[in-house]
Amino acid sequence: MPARLLAVSDLHVRYPENRSLAEDLHPTDPGDWLIVAGDVAERVDDTVGTLAVLAQRFARVIWVAGNHELWTRTKDPVDLRGAHRYRHLVERCRELGVLTPEDPFPVWRGAGGPVTVAPLFLLYDYSFLPEGTTTVAEGLEAAYKAGVVCTDEHLLHPDPYPSREAWCAARVGYSEKRLAEIDPELPTVLVNHWPMTRLPTRVLRYPEFALWCGTTATADWHVRYRASTVVYGHLHIPRVLHEDGVRFVEASLGYPREWKPREERYGMPVTDLLPRQILPVPEGPEPYAAPASEAAAR
Prior knowledge:
single chain; globular
């Protein structure tokens, strides 16, 4: 089997079952690369420790931050907040040789390449509004009335930015500049923890949760930046979608309460989906942990 570009997201290793699965991740070829699309853990030491193990096994590991890594919790000895916490994680990754959204974008030259792999950290700005709302204030009011409130509201701080929306806007602007500088002759694999278009959120059981799932500012990036595949996580609904002829791969593991019932329901061990193959694009039908019609409880 030739070297492959692989991806996984939302390992959430604070759960023992998930930690065991993460520890069992191995390449099938010495040249395999692994994308880790956020939410490894909530504590810095758990995130760094997991990435350290993976970096020893895979030829290259590429990490992007998820919301859980940015939470500031009293149980974590690292009490940094917001952008300061993110920069700390970036520096720790660099010590391991793990690439981040702050490093030069690597070019995958294996099967299915050459392709520029662009890890991004974009956050969200509440622009995935619930139906019937037209402003962020209205959207948040609808979510609170529905009893849908993301834990980010309490633990993900935007420091030194005045708001998460402002931090998101800064990240979008920074990322646009970097993407505009890459070789225009090469296609890309775009990687972000949060979905980059609204479509993947349409199956959420609680549609108001989409507020915390991305930004409309990236709605056309898969076209504008020549994406062959977009890799994301966050929703815990591992599946493959297509928009404008572009393949979107949700690479999440998710919580044990989510993936264990799927194993039983569909007769497909979670290890069959862990990690997901990004390049070369698999031939024939791709495995799905859940059909597009399944709603998520996120």
